[in-house]
Amino acid sequence: MLSKMTCIQTLNPPKTLSSSYSVNKSLPFSSSATKTHFKIPSKRLQKGFFVMATKQQENELNLNLLTNSERRNEVMTAAKNSLSNCLSETNLCAEIPSLKSKTRGKVRDIYDGGDYLVLVTTDRQSAFDRVLASIPFKGQVLNDTSLWWFNQTQHIAPNAIIAVPDKNVTIAKKCTVFPVEFVVRGYVTGSTDTSLWTVYKNGVRNYCGNVIPEGMVKNERLPANIITPTTKAADHDVPITPEEIVKQGLMSQADYDEASRKALSLFEYGQRVASEHGMILVDTKYEFGKAPDGSVLLIDEVHTPDSSRYWLAHSYQSRFQNGVEPENVDKEFLRLWFKDHCNPYEDKVLPDAPEELVTELAWRYIFLFETITKSRFQIPDTTEPIHDRITRNVSKALSSLQN
């Protein structure tokens, strides 16, 4: 999560990349202007990137590509070779004198650069309010995914990105961050203590100010999308109602109303884009901040597999009707593995995540990025240590911004 003094501003919209997809084999799945601007380099899809035969199949995306493709093998091999080169910790303050302090979030390291914040997205994987593992390439793919969505959603909610000097880094203007997360849900699902399904099966029918109908089952679509806000405690998210948010002075009524409207609009837009690419955006979370001019800005991350749940659309209905878990492209399978092998909320020491699960998650994050954006994820060159590369790029960017 971001510190309470963060926000993010506009990038120029990226060029739209297009391609078609195809299946090789059938294999069922088990289980305003800115001073400086740095663009993420993009590459048009090379011929044969994905192998898919028809336009209809593009809208009926299935897990064959996820479980049996040359691209998967390429990424899995690269991920396995990069397990010892993950970006788990950063210490830019030691190398860049203009950085005043560091705040360590679950995934991001946030550095105070005076007028700016430097947000480094690491490879740490969090769930259950703790770090579970380090996933190769995760920081880069999260940064890439968020930036793509920030570009696509400027018409709904402005943001405050200043520069993107490195694959893992975003530089942002400071703003006052509302201490509330806007969790938007379209389905009754989840496995954590604060998931809608967990509280629903425990008998809760009025959750964060939303009345949930009787008789719903796991993974069922809600009658309408809802917001279940949370506020940040010392180490975990706490559900809260809109009335409590205003009463406790966390947000004014006007700010809450504006942010909640933006959140629902962002989610509806995200669902539409996901559907066009054969996916279901099930739920997600947004964070907002207030700029010095009083505008409410979207910050942190947008529709990433860390902040969102995605299912494959073509098989959802049949699997739901048969009581089978949806095919997912997010970190849920890793959550479930830890719940099966330990108590991730209470055990002091957690087991190490199996290598095959770590590399599989790296692939799924990249698969989601490539499917949604229709662009090819650039596997990083490991000849230069990631921390050295980030330090060099951030130092150069800050020098340019301050001149």
Automatic annotation (TrEMBL):
Residues 103-349 form the SAICAR synthetase/ADE2 N-terminal domain. Keywords: ATP-binding, Ligase, Nucleotide-binding, Purine biosynthesis. GO terms for cellular component: chloroplast stroma. Pathway: Purine metabolism; IMP biosynthesis via de novo pathway; 5-amino-1-(5-phospho-D-ribosyl)imidazole-4-carboxamide from 5-amino-1-(5-phospho-D-ribosyl)imidazole-4-carboxylate: step 1/2. Its EC number is 6.3.2.6. It catalyses: 5-amino-1-(5-phospho-D-ribosyl)imidazole-4-carboxylate + L-aspartate + ATP = (2S)-2-[5-amino-1-(5-phospho-beta-D-ribosyl)imidazole-4-carboxamido]succinate + ADP + phosphate + 2 H(+). GO terms for molecular function: ATP binding; phosphoribosylaminoimidazolesuccinocarboxamide synthase activity. One of its GO terms (biological process) is 'de novo' IMP biosynthetic process. HAMAP family: SAICAR_synth (MF_00137). Belongs to the SAICAR synthetase family. This is Phosphoribosylaminoimidazole-succinocarboxamide synthase, chloroplastic. It comes from Artemisia annua.
